[in-house]
Write a structure and sequence with these properties.
This protein has about 120 residues and is an alpha+beta fold. The chain is built from 4 helices and 5 strands, in the order αααβββββα. It has a 3-stranded antiparallel beta sheet. It has a two-stranded antiparallel ribbon with strand order 3-4. Strand 1 and strand 2 form a beta hairpin.
């Protein structure tokens, strides 16, 4: 019965501990070693997005994370809002950065074929 439950796709995403346990089981490494690799990967991503970093992180074959800079938006006075059927003042928004994740070919093929 336990093997049948493991074969079904999970209804929710794996937690960090579940991911570490699955990788450790498939690679015959200790959980401590796998956890160190996952933490080091997180540190590399963080280093790529610091002020001295490149602003781009690529996990070869799977995904690329870039930094997208959104410009500031000026305030809008007396703007018509169709949903409310009324005029509203919209406050200004400052410029900000947000991450953009792009799937690369290998990940696209995995999602497309389900393999």
């Amino acid at each position: 019965m336990a093997k049948e439950a493991a074969a079904k796709p999970a209804a929710k995403p794996m937690s960090k501990n579940e991911l570490i346990a699955a990788i450790a089981a498939s690679t015959n490494l200790s959980k401590k070693d796998v956890a160190a690799v996952v933490d080091a990967l997180g540190e590399q991503i963080k280093a790529a997005f610091t002020k001295k970093g490149s602003g781009v992180f690529v996990f070869p074959g799977l995904f690329k994370i870039t930094k997208k800079e959104e410009p500031k938006k000026p305030a809008q006075k007396h703007k018509w809002v169709p949903m409310l059927q009324d005029y509203r003042d919209i406050p200004a928004k400052p410029a900000y950065c947000k991450p953009k994740l792009t799937a690369l070919k290998a990940l696209k093929d995995i999602v497309k074929n389900g393999k």
